[in-house]
Amino acid sequence: MSGPPVIEVEALRFHYPRRAASVLELDRFEIAAGERILLAGGSGSGKSTLLSLLAGVLLASYGAVRLLGCDWREIAPATRDRRRADHIGYVFQQFNLLGWMTAIDNVVLGSAFSESRTARALGGWGSLERAAREALERMQLPASRWQTRGAELSVGEQQRVAAARALIGRPDLILADEPTSALDEPLRDAFIEALLAASDEAGCALLLVSHDRALEPCFARCVRLNTHSGGSASGAVPAR
Q1: Which of 85, 120, 220, 237 could lock 113 by a disulfide, CB 3.0 to 4.6 Å apart?
Q2: Are 206 and 21 in contact (CB under 8 A)?
Q3: CB-CB neighbours of 23 under 10 Å
Q4: Which of these, 87, 66, 34, lies nearest to 196 by C-alpha position?
Q5: For 26-57, what is each residue's pLDDT tens digit?
Q6: Cβ(235)–Cβ(29) below 8 Å
């Protein structure tokens, strides 16, 4: 492997203030460049907490979480915000689109807070709108819907726009938090197929959180967080 992994976790322990018990315990975990991983586990296992730690939204109580070799705890808050915007695309469970903005404009927002992602988008496509159109095409949203306001899109369409927003500007890592939970099986399968193909084409590593075991064959690696009493988690092991 050339260069550091996209993500390195070592001896991670996390607990919330005024709570002695750890919410999450993880001895070692890595994500290689371009790797696609399914993160599984029951309710209370710490899946969403781990995503927040990987993105530097939460900081480890003990141990290290590194993005491209840099420990989140060793940089200032403003630097963390810039680094997150530069290197991570996030697909939220509720999609978090701006309802009054078109699909195109929602996608462009994915690079609005990062000069480096804006530069990559412009370098590849000449304009942010063209880059947004390309991302929507990768996510198989029909062109007839690109100028539709976010509030007028179906749930499946909103999901594709949210994924395109995460992909614009080719971030190093896509984090997706239960993005298929509101979809029926055919829509789920079509979305996962499009997301995997788009992230591969963009060269992004992908970590997708889901409790749906039917998705496991789609991923090169499945990591499972093991739930213990009190909602803590210990270890992450390949599911197969």
Answers
A1: 85
A2: no
A3: 21
A4: 34
A5: 999 999 999 999 999 887 788 989 999 999 99
A6: no
pTM of the model: 0.90
Q: Please say whether the beta carbons of 174 and 205 come within 8 A.
A: yes
Q: Which fold has domain 7-238?
A: Rossmann fold (3.40.50)
| 105 Cβ contact partners less than 8 Å away, ≥ 6 residues apart | 98, 132
Residue 131, CA distances (Å) to 60, 123, 146, 166, 169 in order: 35, 9, 13, 12, 8
In this predicted model, what pLDDT tens digit does every residue of 148-203 receive, in sequence order? 999 999 989 999 999 999 999 999 999 999 888 878 888 899 999 999 999 999 99
**Amino acid residing at 188:** R
Q: Is 143 exposed, middle or buried (0-12, 13-18, 19+ CB in 10 A)?
A: exposed
The Cα 44–Cα 227 span in angstroms is 7
Question: Residue 180: what residue type?
Answer: T
Tokens representing 79 are 């630097």
Burial of 182: CB neighbours in 10 Å, binned 0-12, 13-18, 19+:
middle
